[in-house]
Write a structure and sequence with these properties.
By secondary structure, this protein is an alpha/beta fold. It contains 12 helices and 10 strands. Helices cover about 45% and strands about 20% of the residues. Strands 1, 2, 3, 4, 5, 6, 7, 8, 9 and 10 form a 10-stranded mixed sheet that branches. The longest helix is centred in the C-terminal third of the chain and has 26 residues. The mean pLDDT is about 95.
């Protein structure tokens, strides 16, 4: 394998994407970087997506396209895992079937990866809102203060502050790094990217960032961000439980504290999303009570100067009696 032109495995999940998949595939076809393979995983899509793909394959014999077929619908986590195992490239790149990438996307990411030898390279993204016919640069921003990191603790500190986007897409990742550490997606989760990145960054030693907007993220009626229900929030609670397991197993005291902070921030984020989506006061109180059983700050943490006052306040408001915590939450974030 050429070191200056490494093979890139572009992973695309296929499920109910007939409206968007051709646009997505054309954006890959038009890449200025040419040494790539396209890994398509069909999760038993019931629409016409595969007919469109088959026609695309016929019209583009020069492209290396591998199609994996699931025997039953298994969800995006299993699709991602299938794609990882099917990939043969030195690097893996995840691209969702309703989005697209700019022509220089892979070239820019590979250039940085070769210059830095980073395990992960992250680029920026643009939101395209089809409802309002508008765009927003840096919709899921990377706000890290540095462009290159070679220290795991520093990388996880930036992550715990929320300065890396939690999406799996728009990141170029060394395939061997994923496989050697057995960092796979947990089946059955809707918000699987958040947990996967958490597990990934617990192991990451080198990470690089480029400022280029390379990924176009489309907001439309079928976007997950607009379709949240109680099942999604039950999944968020499962993710919190996974965070708690990692907290309990972690031996490094500094990383342990960062996981603790991540849990406090993630609890608030989930509650905010839930309240805005459902406006269900009873369900909100139920989840606050459930979250109180999951890892939180201890009394001794309130005299720890390394823990910010903001985190201490959030933790306190989350762990007063659930009735009052609910009233305080609604007062803070609006009726």
């Amino acid at each position: 394998m050429s070191t200056d032109q490494p093979l890139i495995s572009i992973n695309i999940p296929i499920f109910k994407c007939e409206k968007y998949i051709l646009r997505c595939l054309e954006s890959v076809k038009n890449q200025t970087y040419t040494n790539f393979e396209i890994i398509l995983v069909n999760d038993c899509t019931p629409d016409g997506s595969m007919a469109i793909i088959e026609e695309f394959v016929k019209e583009n014999p020069s492209l290396t396209i591998k199609i994996d077929e699931h025997e039953e619908n298994s969800g995006l986590s299993v699709v991602r895992n299938t794609g990882i195992k099917a990939s043969r490239g030195q690097y893996i790149y995840f691209l969702d079937s309703d989005d697209e990438i700019i022509e220089e996307c892979i070239e820019l990411l590979v250039k940085n990866a070769l210059e830095t030898d980073a395990q992960i390279v992250i680029a920026q993204n643009r939101w395209i809102n089809t409802f309002e016919n508008s765009t927003k640069d840096f919709g899921f921003p990377t706000n890290a203060p540095k462009k290159y990191y070679d220290n795991n603790l520093e990388i996880f500190l930036v992550y715990s502050n929320g300065d890396f986007p939690s999406s799996s897409w728009n990141k170029l990742i060394k395939r061997d790094f994923i496989l050697d550490n057995k960092i796979f997606f947990v089946p059955g989760l809707f918000a699987q990217d958040e947990l996967w990145l958490f597990h990934l960054l617990l192991k990451t030693e080198t990470l690089s960032i480029i400022d280029n907007i390379t990924y176009l993220y489309y907001l439309h009626g079928e976007s997950v961000i607009f379709n949240r229900n109680k099942t999604n929030f039950e999944n968020f609670l499962t993710i919190l439980e996974h965070f708690a397991v990692s907290y309990n197993e972690q031996k490094n005291r500094k990383v342990k504290k960062l996981i603790q902070k991540k849990i406090v921030l993630f609890k608030e984020m989930v509650l905010i999303i839930q309240w805005k989506a459902l406006k269900d006061k009873k369900y909100l109180q139920t989840n606050i009570a459930r979250m109180q059983k999951i890892t939180r700050l201890h009394l001794v943490d309130y005299i720890n100067p390394t823990i910010s006052l903001g985190i201490k306040k959030k933790n306190f408001s989350q762990n007063i009696p659930s009735y009052w915590a609910t009233k305080l939450f609604i007062w803070r974030f609006g009726k």
